[in-house]
Structure formats: structure tokens, C-alpha cells
Amino acid sequence: MVGLGGSLRDGSQTERALRLALAGAETAGAETVAITGSELVLPFYDATDVDRGPEAAYLVETLRTADGVIIASPGYHGALSGLVKNALDYIEDLRGDERPYLDGRAVGLASIAFGWQASVATLAQLRTITHSLRGWPTPLGGAINSAEVKFDEAGGCSSEKAEFTLRTIGAQVVEFARYRAGR
């Protein structure tokens, strides 16, 4: 299971939310890896340039082998961050695979923004992008208002409801991956 997201700020609220969702996946039995923050600083995606630097190649290969993905994006001005969007654009490199794009994979989604409007709009965009990439968004998505909910360095959350939502997203990705694998 791959967790993708966060912002350039180490320990951002979005990265901490992503880690709670990944903890939910781990509790459900998944092995997880997080690609966050500075690991997402990649050249702008260019489909005509087939040379990938080590960071982009790692991202693409990790997504290629993943049975499930969790994406968490901050909501900036009512939209997902450019950092996360550019990383998602690299999924285009999977177009010729046996499992193209995110085909047949569960994708858990969470958006974290300072206000409900940006958080909900960002979650809707993440769902649209996931559908376009042939992924299966989990039934539960997380729209987190960081004006009301805080995540601490120890992995805690000030809202039991938000923590439950994020952990459930992780568990749903694992459940779907097992279902698809016939386990």
C-alpha cells in the first residue's frame, strides 16, 4: 500500500492525516510506504520526456506494484496542491502496463484544508482524478477542516471522528485489495 501526499512543510497536517490513514491500513494487515513532502518535489510531468530521475522512477515503480493507494492533499484555494497533482500526473507512465494507471486498485482519499469549502472541493477533485485514472475510490473519503481538527507529532488527532474516518479509509483500501485478490 502506498500513501502519497502531504506538503513541503515537514510534519504538515496533511502528512500527519495520511499517516493515520496508513496506520488504519497497517492495522488491517497491510505493509505500507509513504511518499511525502520533499520526496514529491519532481520535475513537471512531461509525457514526451521518457527519462525519469531517481525520485520520479521510485514513485512510478512503487505505484506500479501497489495493490492500493491512499492520497492526501492539502486544499489550496479550493483545489488540490500542485505538488500532489504533479505526482499524480506521473501515473501516466503506467498507461501501457498490464494494469494501466490505477486500474482495479482501491484508492483512499483525504483532503485537509483550513475551512470546509476548500476541503470538500479538494476531495471532489481527488475523486474525479481517481476515476479518470481507473481507480476505485473507497466509499468513505475524508474532508478534514484543519481550522477545527489538529494532528500532533505523536500521531494523535484532536477529533475522534476525523481519526476514525482516516483509519477507516486505510482499512477500506486493504479490504478492497483483498477482495480483488480473492483473499
TrEMBL record:
InterPro entries named among the record's database cross-references: Flavoprotein-like_sf, FMN_Rdtase-like_dom, NAD(P)H-dep_reductase
Top-level taxon of origin: Bacteria
Gene Ontology MF annotations: FMN binding; oxidoreductase activity
Boundaries of every NADPH-dependent FMN reductase-like domain copy: 2-139
Recorded GO CC terms: cytosol
PANTHER family found in the cross-reference section: CHROMATE REDUCTASE (PTHR30543), NAD(P)H-DEPENDENT FMN REDUCTASE LOT6 (PTHR30543:SF21)
Entry protein name: FMN reductase
Source taxonomy: Bacteria, Bacillati, Actinomycetota, Actinomycetes, Pseudonocardiales
